[in-house]
């Protein structure tokens, strides 16, 4: 994955093992709540947005996916039409942020990885903004 941390809007590219791009994630620059678009092969396939609620929740438009579980601790499942299609777990004793991602529908692999990148970016942004206010 490659990112543009200093540019606005922030953009991340998910690549395969040979370095070929498979998805591009763009964070919307001016949005009240975090919002990302996911493009694959130049086509926008989904919008990931954080919903306003007391318990953090994400809505994925365009991909018919739902996130449930504790995304803040990066332990959550992704389902489509009530069927679990992925399970994400953060490894706590690792160097940097490391995740175990089990994908049960290979057709959704790039979308699930893009979702994990987007949610991880929201967590990092929230952590840095709360550290700046201390």
Features of this protein?
1 helix, disordered N terminus, 18% helix, 134 residues, ten-stranded antiparallel β-sheet, alpha+beta, globular
TL;DR of this structure?
With 134 residues, this protein is an alpha+beta fold.
Low-confidence stretches: 1-5
Strand content: over 45%
Number of strands: 10
Q: Kindly provide the radius of gyration, computed on alpha-carbon positions and rounded to a whole number of angstroms.
A: 14 Å
Derived structural class? alpha+beta
Straight-line distance between termini: 31 Å
Which range best describes the helical content: under 10%, 10-25%, 25-40%, 40-55%, 55-70% or over 70%?
10-25%
Word description of this protein:
18% of the residues lie in helices and 46% in strands. It is built from 1 helix and 10 strands; from the N terminus they run ββββββββββα. The model is unreliable at 1-5 (pLDDT under 50). The chain is α+β, with helices and mostly antiparallel strands and 134 residues long. The protein has one helix at residues 109-132; strands spanning 2-3, 11-15, 21-27, 35-40, 43-51, 57-61, 65-70, 75-80, 83-91, 98-103. 24% of the residues are buried.
């Amino acid at each position: 994955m490659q990112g543009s941390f200093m540019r606005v809007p922030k953009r991340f590219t998910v690549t395969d093992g040979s370095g070929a791009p498979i998805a591009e994630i763009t964070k919307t620059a001016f949005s009240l709540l975090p919002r990302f678009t996911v493009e694959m092969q130049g086509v926008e396939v989904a919008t990931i947005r954080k919903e306003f609620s007391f318990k953090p929740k994400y809505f994925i438009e365009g991909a018919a996916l739902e996130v449930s579980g504790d995304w803040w601790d990066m332990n959550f499942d992704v389902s489509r039409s009530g069927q679990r299609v992925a399970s994400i777990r953060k490894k706590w004793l690792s160097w940097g942020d490391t995740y175990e991602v089990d994908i049960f529908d290979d057709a959704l692999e790039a979308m699930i990885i893009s979702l994990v990148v987007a949610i991880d970016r929201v967590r990092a942004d929230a952590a840095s903004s709360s550290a700046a206010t201390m």
